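The record is given unchanged here:
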Amino acid sequence: MYSLFIGLTLGGLPVVWRLARPRSGGLVLGAIAGFGVMALLALAQAGAGGSAVGGTGPLALGLAGLVGAAAMILPGVSGGYLLLVLGQYIPILGAVDAFKQALRAGDLGAASAPATGVLLPVAIGLVVGVAAVSNLLQRLLTRCRKPTLGFLIGLLAGAVLGLWPFQEPAEPVAGVTVIKGRVVTAETLPLTAPEDWPTRRFAPSASRAAAAVGLVAAGFVTTLGIARLGRKEPEGL
């Protein structure tokens, strides 16, 4: 899955680059800044052991919704990929699945927990993000077009730093593993959700590496194909 998201994201680079030509100093500086932001996010995620950056509290989930809204507006940016980098993709999908299962079972009490604890903050972030980011982006593109497009290019290029295709969940060890700033104890170990487990990287086999490259290529071609279906420059850009 990570490989596919990498391809989908990198496929957005030609889209934004076409809008940004010709190159300028502001474009380069913006790209460096955007790349730096994604590098910092990747470092924060690595320091958190691969778990959600900033936790999964209401503020972090609201930020995830805002990021998702921004990705819907920004050309070539994958919202799912950014949520993966932030470590919020799996918790949000888990909440959606739990909500659906509770509704199917007719258990409104069980449905309220994921609805109010996860989905509501994300929805609020989405609404705020759509309104705020669209207006902000239009103003930035009007007043400083090149640096803004450069920043987007940097975000896309730097996004690959946040995800390594060959990683897997690592079962926490009591007294050793730190999750959300707390050392896992023998008492809390059974209560630790799998989506909160840290991740570890591994050396892939030749076949797995080839499959990952194929998924990256498939994602890249998919994004380019979608872009070619709408060659017309997005409104406001």
Remarks:
- Residues 2-166+203-229 form one domain.
- Residues 8 and 222 are 7 Å apart (CA to CA).
